[in-house]
Amino acid sequence: MAHANEKEIDTRTEEEKAIDAWLPITSDRNAKWWYSTFHNVTAMVGAGVLSLPYAMSEMGWGPGITVMLLSWAITFYTIWQMVEMHEMVPGKRFDRYHELGQHAFGEKLGLWIVVPQQIVVDVSSCIIYMVTGGKSLKKFHETVCPDCQPIKLTYFIIIFSSVHFVLSHLPNFNSISLVSLAAAVMSLTYSIVAWACSIGRGIEGREVSYELRGEKTSDNIFMFLSALGDVAFAYAGHNVVLEIQATIPSTPEKPSKGPMWKGVWVAYLIVAVCYLPVAFIGYWAFGNVVEDNILLSLEKPVWVVAAANLFVVVHVIGSYQVFAMPVFDMIETYAVKSMRLKPSTLLRFGVRTTFVAFTLFVGMTIPFFGGLMGFFGGFALAPTSYYLPCIIWLIIVKPKRFGFSWFMNWFCIIAGILLTVLSPIGGMWTLIKQAKNYRFYQ
């Protein structure tokens, strides 16, 4: 398919060019292919991987393995679709998820379908990363100083947030590349630590039960539904794919999908290396007593557990920034294009500081890690990663009816809708249960 050079088809006014040069997503298009690797790894391999053994304990071996492998395959297929659709229309780049949605569904309907979902995904992910960062700092403190006076989790969340009050003012995706690279390296490192230490725990010969966690059948049903949301949260990162690809240069001879797809291939191999061993080995080692964060179940070697929790902190710092950048872009775009405010450092400072403060406040108010992931994983992340790309593909590409592509897309759509409908029920049940048992002095 033809691709027109951006310089040849640029019909923007000088004011529009100046605004695009200021906005986070379109201000810098000099990224290399490996940028997409560590941005995608940072977006996907985050808090979710640590909950996968817990999700396995709620599903059991057979259903758990099936759901894990199916989710990897479905989301790998849908991320390929999004990379392909980035420049599917000759002479145009869909730099933002909602722009692709507007092309498929219409200008107004596309906004209403995509933007609310993307905002919920990005904002909820940032809130969860606030909680995860605080929990990991707390675990690090308790590990290295077991005799110290206990400190409330809310204080650790505040400490974690202080970094974001600084990093959030980096202007665009390419400016956070080093942060994202460090986060990607840390995700691979703490995933290896999690399953390696779990092997050590497993071969000690302790008795492990693989019975489902619930005491009643109804409990096990709700837990299974919640586990589906946990898996959906872990595999979902597609809401920032187009924004990441927008940072890669493109010409008719070398469209951006080439280097982007290369980066995505490597990223998904890393995802498999991180997710599957952590999920399966973690569950094998601890069975149905595993914590909703696998690192909280590990006790020794002490220095390794402490280091792994610091690795998680570094990683979720990067993950927060990757998910926050599209939100910054949306708000700043609305401010300068709809509200006609002048692009300025003061505007950017106000928008981003307010956002960090908001996610901090909600994170301190609802620090329930497992329930949040189960609810948001199905409610928001499943649509944007499991089946919305398939619906858009059917509308734009129009594959041959009853052909492989047609069947594959409808399979993903049905599976994704089931996730969206069922898993929030389990997630809300888990959230309510955890809220009843939570002690705020912890």
TrEMBL record:
Signal peptide: none
Chief place of localization: membrane
Topology in the lipid bilayer: Multi-pass membrane protein
Domain Amino acid transporter transmembrane: from-to ranges: 30-426
Pfam families: Aa_trans
Keywords: Amino-acid transport, Cell membrane, Membrane, Transmembrane, Transmembrane helix, Transport
Localization: Cell membrane
One annotated GO biological process: amino acid transmembrane transport
Cited Gene3D superfamilies: Amino acid/polyamine transporter I
TM spans (from-to): 33-54, 61-80, 109-132, 153-170, 176-197, 264-286, 306-328, 349-369, 375-396, 408-432
Superkingdom in the source lineage: Eukaryota
Name listed for the protein in its UniProt record: Lysine histidine transporter 1-like
Organism: Nicotiana tabacum
This protein's encoding gene: LOC107818280
